[in-house]
Amino acid sequence: MTRTEYRTARRWIRDNGRMAYRWIANSFGWGAADSLRDLADAKDWLQERAEIVAYCKRYGLACNARHTGRR
């Protein structure tokens, strides 16, 4: 998938939501559709940890980034 095709696919997803994955699979193959779906569903672990630490600070709980590791 080239950069132009990637941008086109992301635009389809932005404009049409999950239905765009079927169009992407037909145009570029299921591998590309699955990769883009995985990117969309991925969690940002650093952001999640920052939210946990902010929550703990807001409520006066003892917590730091080391206590929020993936298990």
Task: Tell me the layout of helices and strands.
Blueprint: H1 3-16, H2 20-28, H3 30-41, H4 45-58
User: How many alpha or pi helices?
Assistant: 4
CA gyration radius, whole angstroms: 18 Å
Biggest sheet descriptor: none
The helix/strand series, from N terminus to C terminus, equals HHHH
Q: Helix share of residues?
A: 55-70%
Structural class: mainly alpha
> Whole-Å distance between the termini?
34 Å
Roughly what fraction of the amino acids lie in strands?
A: under 5%
Shape: elongated
Mean pLDDT: 77
Number of strands: 0
Uncertain runs are none
Quick structural summary:
The chain has helices spanning 3-16, 20-28, 30-41, 45-58.
Name its key features.
71 residues; mainly alpha; 4 helices; elongated
Structure report:
The radius of gyration is 18 Å and the shape is elongated. The chain has a domain at 3-41. Helix 1 runs antiparallel to helix 2 (20-28) and helix 2 runs antiparallel to helix 3 (30-41). The protein has helices spanning 3-16, 20-28, 30-41, 45-58. The chain is mainly α. The longest helix is centred in the first third of the chain and has 14 residues, at 3-16.
